[in-house]
Amino acid sequence: MEIKSDIQIAQETEMADIREIAAAAGIEEKYLEPYGRYKAKVDYNLLEEKKETPDGKLILVTAISPTPAGEGKTTTSVGLADALHQMGVNVMAALREPSLGPVFGIKGGAAGGGYAQVVPMEDINLHFTGDFHAIGAANNLIAAMLDNHIQQGNALNIDPRRITWKRAVDMNDRQLRNIVCGLGGKANGVPREDGFEITVASEVMAIMCLAKNIDDLKEKLASIIVGYTYDNKPVTVRDIKAQGAAAALLKDALKPNLVQTLEKTPAFVHCGPFANIAHGCNSIMATKMALKLADYVVTEAGFAADLGAEKFVDIKCRKAGLKPSACVIVATVKALKYHGGVKREDLAQENLAALEKGLPNLLQHVENVTQHFGLPAVVAINEFPTDTEAEIRLVEEKCRELGVNVVLSQVWGKGGKGGLKLAEEVLRLCQCENHFDFVYPLDIPIKEKIETIARKIYRADGVIFENNAKKQLAQLEELGFNDVPVCMAKTQFSFSDNPALLGAPRDFSITVTDLKIDAGAGFIVAKTGNIMTMPGLPKVPAAEKIDVDNTGRITGLF
Fold first, then answer.
1. Backbone phi, then psi, for 167, in 5-degree steps?
2. E strands within 230-313?
3. Would the pLDDT of 108 be above 70?
């Protein structure tokens, strides 16, 4: 039997006109701004009209620590939404937009997989509705106005050595991590060290995700700290008068994007920060709009539960006043065996000993979700043909010891039909007792927040603050940023800050190398280990396999 690629499946599916999808979701045409036939923006004024409408129930999808074997978080999210749709439930998905960096780097496409995808997948994976371009332009406008202010006399007394604002590009380009700009003589600017970060790691992306409306967006942009003066005072976007122009660039990007799944379930796909170096959740506006339109909303948080889900809880839910009703933790037998020490080329072989050795990774994520986030949870095993009954049974036994059910998810091969059992369990969990809570209170010191996350969620022995981070910590406290959440920037591959420590490591410390306030987004970024905000391409980038023919048909996006 021919195994079709994700892009083949997507291209062979007949999509509905986006106006039909909008009508089915209860979106009046006056709020719809079509971008062609199959995607549209939805005017955020819809939220104001529906402010008295009760919210639906929110279902969070997260996963175990990522491996090269894959976990299928987006695939599971889409398949679960389709399964609920098949059951006659009024449901929407609220997902993140893919970044061009991973699309051309390691991942290829990132709109789900198999028969559980959002479409048009080529558009979603590439330029989509131009949101990321707008975010990059707004980011770089701020950078240009900042440098121009210095060039035109520097009335604010900005120290060029203490500029914290970086330029952004939505591409994995290690060559731009550290640069020197302003060369070529007096007319070309003031020479200084600079750098780029990938657009999805930028504070403008975080602000887009966390803004509640256009006025909130402008205020958040104005509050961004771009650097410091010679006498150590912060300089904001408000000081350089850039917030209005930046907001003008973002006014359309702020509107959530409406698309559909292969089974025509309505889905918002909007904003997409990485969960290892940013907070890893789609926009508050898209999530809240979906909750006003549907009885159940399936959303995802990036990477594993120690990153995306923790930030979903401690940052997004805090700022948006959200309370999830249930959580799905996605795992694969292959990935668990990888955590147990099996080489990638041997993952198709049954290996119960390695599976048992890798299971603590899943179990720690389960404990975090149920005990520290206080959410009812189910483990979804994303099925591979090589999984054996004995392996599935072992995972079930270990999870049930923690009081959590395990459901085999077959959505990749069967679409919504393969997720019906998972959907039934999720509906049951949504009616269960819910003890949702944050990992830490806001009114404790910054250092203590970081240590609480490290000890509770990662199971670290403690946190080491490098000298640079200690100085930054003192400055943040002096500036009064004690009552904001922390966004941990950490490798996604391990609970530790060392990507080689797989499974559920113990006897380790987390090293904080850098602390930065994203005052506009409203959180402190704590960089750990060797984490970078500009990834590089791998030895064989996915871009090498992507092509387009003379009819405009794209291939190679998985």
1. -80, 165
2. 234-236, 257-261, 266-269, 296-300
3. no
Q: Is 370 a catalytic residue?
A: no
Cα–Cα distance, 394 to 177 (Å, whole number):
45
Spot the catalytic one: 412, 481, 508, 558: 412
- Verify whether residue 384 is a known catalytic residue: yes
d(Cα 516, Cα 525) in Å, to the nearest integer? Answer: 5
Question: Tokens representing 191?
Answer: 């020479």
Tens of pLDDT along 228-271? 999 999 999 999 999 999 999 999 999 999 999 999 999 999 99
| Active-site residue flag, 508 | no
Neighbours of 509 (CB within 10 A): 14
pLDDT score recorded for residue 272: 87
pLDDT of 3 reads 75
Q: Are 53 and 276 in contact (CB under 8 A)?
A: no
Cα of 387 vs its chain's centroid, Å: 28
* Annotation marks residue 165 as catalytic: no
Let me know: does 211 contact 282? Beta carbons within 8 Å. Answer: no
Quote the CA–CA distance of 536 and 221 in Å, as a whole number. Answer: 28
Q: What is the value of pTM for the model shown?
A: 0.96
96 is catalytic: yes
